[in-house]
Amino acid sequence: MSLFTDASRYIPGGVNSPVRAFRSVGGEPLFIERASGAHIFAADGRQYIDYVGSWGPMILGHAHPDVIRVVQERAALGLSFGAPTQIETRLAQKVCELMPSIELVRMVSSGTEATMSAIRLARGFTGRSKIVKFEGCYHGHSDSLLVKAGSGALTLGVPTSPGVPPELAAHTITLAYNDIAQVQQTFTDMGREIACVIVEPIAGNMNCVPPVPGFLEALRALCDRHDSVLIFDEVMTGFRVALGGAQQLYGIKPDLTTLGKIIGGGMPVGAFGGKREIMQQIAPLGPVYQAGTLSGNPVAMAAGLATLEAISAPSFHAALAERTNQLIEGLSLAARTANVPFSTNHVCGMFGLFFTDKAPVRYFREVMACNVERFNRFFHAMLDEGVYLAPSAYEAGFVSSAHDANLIESTVKAARAAFSRI
Ligand SMILES: Cc1ncc(COP(=O)(O)O)c(C=O)c1O
Ligand SMILES: N[C@H](C=O)CCC(=O)O
């Protein structure tokens, strides 16, 4: 019996998160035994150069010695106390230093919790119910946000999930990412009802789509004019596209920021934070309730802090951007040589690959027009060549500091072979 068949006897679909299941690319998911640096080692005995990086957290590569050491040290002191610890203060301080828009920050255990709590806080603060999100953006799986969502929901063809009460979904207004005029019109029509706008400042759950010039600026201006809360969901982009996240890169200050992935260095951590005035509405300071038995878990805080300290090294992100450039240039040349219509987006350590001749891809409808069948063939050809990409045409890829120039060159060599046979 295969490991996947065995898993499927006890776990729905054999996986604990749907996008892992290889449903759209076909075949059975790899079972991973261990990982080190830029490589994952599968139970079938093969090793792969990994561009999933646990969906973003592993910016230092897998099993980075500094992170593993502090995790081992902290674990020996006890796994969880359900009471304050100094290590959570230090991580909170570091987050506030790296992202100056964050004056107070609350730790949670996942990105989903972070965005769900930020939405509740924005509604509680403004006394309004409607929220604006963008089609193809994914903000975790809380009910209000699983409407026209990206990531696994899009991959599996259920962007608006059954089980979300229609009365609740009616409060979620979904607009087209990068369509400035549409957002302006929506605010003109109902600005006084909108509690918040939540946006991935670089969309990473419909492949990788950066904002067009003026899009984030327009969101900032409209939220200011209508007293709505602007939430940057930086679960994916935070600490990745720049040390201070997309808000540093584009020079825009959101009112609230949600974080996940890198902030836990591979352990389950999320966070939401922002303007003091808004964050003071959270219990116990204010009436908006939010809590968590394992929130601020000391082992997870230690992993997160060690990760943020390591990536604070001078020119860390410049080096990451250089590696990603090398990868993207190599892949683009390989596709051109093989005459395969191919387009790319990348921002520092995250990237997107599109099987289309449209360049650049900037809108959800353009993402949806790409050749998914060709992506699926490319995915399997790369797997055969020893390169592990996200098993979906709608996910961003991630480069880590462990991807050195030689590994990138090996990846490009693999792609030359893959492009020639898709
Ligand atoms: C932008 C964004 N927001 C929120 C989430 C939800 O995070 P988590 O999977 O940790 O719940 C994700 C990833 O899943 C994400 O990419
Ligand atoms: N795209 C998702 C997060 O960014 C993938 C992670 C998951 O849902 O399992």
UniProtKB/TrEMBL annotation:
Query: Is Flavoprotein found in the keyword set?
Result: no
Tell me the compartments it is located in.
Cytoplasm
One Pfam family it belongs to: Aminotran_3
The processes (GO biological process) annotated in the record are:
protoporphyrinogen IX biosynthetic process
Q: What is its main location?
A: cytoplasm
Q: Does the keyword Isomerase apply?
A: yes
Q: Which reaction does it catalyse?
A: (S)-4-amino-5-oxopentanoate = 5-aminolevulinate
Gene Ontology MF terms in the entry: glutamate-1-semialdehyde 2,1-aminomutase activity; pyridoxal phosphate binding; transaminase activity
Q: In which pathway does it act?
A: Porphyrin-containing compound metabolism; protoporphyrin-IX biosynthesis; 5-aminolevulinate from L-glutamyl-tRNA(Glu): step 2/2
Residues with the N6-(pyridoxal phosphate)lysine modification: K261
Keywords carried by this UniProt record: Cytoplasm, Isomerase, Porphyrin biosynthesis, Pyridoxal phosphate
Q: Please, which domain of life does this record's source organism belong to?
A: Bacteria
Q: Which GO terms describe its cellular component?
A: cytoplasm
Q: Which InterPro entries match?
A: 4pyrrol_synth_GluAld_NH2Trfase (IPR004639), Aminotrans_3 (IPR005814), Aminotrans_3_PPA_site (IPR049704), PyrdxlP-dep_Trfase (IPR015424), PyrdxlP-dep_Trfase_major (IPR015421), PyrdxlP-dep_Trfase_small (IPR015422)
Which Enzyme Commission numbers does its entry carry?
Answer: 5.4.3.8
Q: How does it assemble?
A: Homodimer.
Q: Which family does it belong to?
A: Belongs to the class-III pyridoxal-phosphate-dependent aminotransferase family. HemL subfamily.
Please report the name of this protein according to its UniProt entry.
Answer: Glutamate-1-semialdehyde 2,1-aminomutase
**Where does this protein come from, organism-wise?**
Povalibacter uvarum
